[in-house]
Amino acid sequence: MRVRFWGTRGSLPVSLSAEDIKGKIVEALIAAAGRNLKTRDEIEAFVGRDLPFAISHTYGGNTSCIELDIGSDEHVLCDLGTGVRLFGLDVLARKGPRTPRTFHVFMSHLHWDHIMGFPFFPHAYLPGNRIVIYGCHAGIEEAFRRQNAAPCFPVDFSRLSAKIEFVKLEPGRRVRHAGLDVTPKLQQHSGDSYSYRFEHGGKVVVYSTDAEHKTDDVASTHEVVEFFRNADLVIFDAMYSLADAVSVKEDWGHSSNIVGVELCQHARARHLCIYHHEPVYSDAKIASVLQETLRLEEITRTGHTLRISSAYDGLEIAV
Amino acid sequence: MQVSAVRYADVLVVAVKGRIDYMNAEEFKAALLPHLVNCAPGRDQVVLDLSRLEYVSSAGLRVLMIAAKEVRPRKGRLVAVSLQPVVREIFEISRFTLVFDLFDSVQDALRALSPKAASMSHTG
C-alpha cells in the first residue's frame, strides 16, 4: 500500500508569501557560497542532499486529503480538503479524462477545511464517474449539497455529472469497502470526528485527524491505543504544542506531537506521521516541531523504535 | 510515584519522585492539588522539586497545567526546580517552559520567592 499526501495543512489553506520565497532563496545561496556548483546535476544534488527540507521545499498549504493506493483501478481517499484538487489533476494527467472512474472517500468529519476541495475536484464533473463518500455523520450529504449551492458556489450539487453516493458507517464496526477492511472510531472534536483504521494485505494505516486525545482518562486512552495497535503508519493531528492543547486551546479539538508519540509508543506503532499542520506555522517551524518530536521519541524510547515523519503536500509513504 | 512536602516559612517545597504517565496521573493530581489550596502571595507559595522525577507524560503535564491554573487567580507562585535532563527536554518540547518559572535548585527558588524561607532552609 502507498499513502500519498495531497493536503496536509490544518483548518485553512495557506501559501508561501513573496517574502517567504525570497528568504528561502537567500538561505540557499548562503549555503551554496564557496561551493563549486557548475552543472544542473551538481546543483540538484546540492539542493536535494545538502539543503534542509524547509529551505529547499515547502510543507505545502493544502488542507486535508490523503490517498491510499492499493494498486486497484479504484481510488481511495480520506477527506476532501483543497488537496483533492491536485489529486484530481494528477489523475487526469496520468490517466486522462477517460471514464468511468470510481473514487471512494472516507470523511473524518464535515468541517469546511475537509470538504472545501470538492467543488474543485474535476472528476465530479465528468459523466460516468462514481464517487462514493463514506462517513459516520448523519448530515454528510446535506453538508456537500449546501457547499455546492448558491450563494457559496455557482455550480449546484444537482449539476455535478458524476454519480455521487453517500454511505453511512457505524463507529467500531469493521466493514469491507474498496478492497480495504475499514473500522471507524469516534474522536473528540467539535461536532465529532472519526478516525479510520485501514487494513490491507497485512498492513495497517490509521488516519486520525482533528482529534483531541486528552490522555487524562485511562479507559479512553486504552481504546485509542488499541485502535492504533501495531499500525504500520499512524497519520496524526499534531496541530498544537501540548501546553497550548491543555490550556488556551483546550477543547479546540486537536492534539500535540507529544500525545502522538505517547499513543504510538504504547500501541507499538511503527511510523508516526505528524499531520494537520497549524496554518500559522512556517516551514521552518514545522521542521523544528519534527526535530523536537524525533528527539522526544529518542529520549522516551523503551525498546521499541518509532519512526517519525512530518507530512507535506506531495509526500508518499510506502507501507 | 510519590509526593511529599516540606515547609520553609511561607513556602511549601513539594517533591515529586518517580514516573508520571496516564496510568497514575490522577493519583498525582490527588496528591498535588491539596498543597495548592492556600497558595497566594505571602502564604504557601509552592516550589515543585522535580529532582527525582524521572519521566512525565502528557497526562502528568496536564496535571501541572491544572495546578498552574489553580494558583493563577490568587496570584500565587508555583515554580519548578531541578529538572532532570529528560524532564527538562520534555518541558521544552511541550512548551511547558513557558508555563512555569524554572530554577536550578530549591535554594534558588526560595531566594526568588521568599527571603525568609530561603534563610530558614539555609539554616536547616
Write the layout of secondary structure elements.
The complex is a heterodimer of chains A (319) and B (124).
Chain A: E1 2-7, H1 18-32, H2 40-49, H3 53-56, E2 65-69, E3 75-78, H4 83-95, E4 102-106, H5 112-115, E5 130-135, H6 140-147, E6 163-168, E7 175-177, E8 180-187, E9 193-200, E10 203-208, H7 218-228, E11 233-237, H8 242-245, H9 257-267, E12 271-275, H10 283-300, E13 307-310, E14 316-318
Parallel strand pairs in A: 3-4, 4-5, 5-6, 10-11, 11-12, 12-13
Antiparallel strand pairs in A: 1-2, 1-14, 2-3, 7-8, 8-9, 9-10
Chain B: E1 2-8, E2 11-20, H1 25-32, E3 45-56, H2 58-71, E4 78-81, H3 85-94, E5 101-103, H4 106-113, H5 115-122
Helix pairs in contact in B: 1-2, 4-5
* Secondary structure tally: strands of chain B: 5
Spatially, the strands of the biggest sheet of chain A line up as 6-5-4-3-2-1-14
What's the total number of strands of chain A?
14
SSE order of chain A, as H and E?
A: EHHHEEHEHEHEEEEEHEHHEHEE
Structural class based on helices, strands and sheet pairing of chain A? alpha/beta
Residue fraction in strands of chain B: 25-35%
Q: Which oligomeric state applies?
A: heterodimer
Roughly what percent helix of chain A?
25-40%
Report the uncertain regions of chain B: none
**What sort of overall outline of chain A do the alpha carbons produce when their principal axes are compared?**
globular
Structural class of chain B: alpha/beta
**Which strands sit side by side, in order, in the main sheet of chain B?**
1-2-3-4-5
**With helices defined by DSSP (H or I, 4 residues minimum), what is the helix count of chain B?**
5
Spatial shape of chain B: globular
Q: Roughly what is the average pLDDT of chain B, rounded to an integer? A: 93
Provide the low-confidence segments of chain A as ranges.
none
Percent of residues in beta strands of chain A: 15-25%
Report the largest inter-chain contact: A-B, 22 and 23 residues
Rg calc of chain A:
20 Å
Work out the radius of gyration of chain B.
Answer: 13 Å
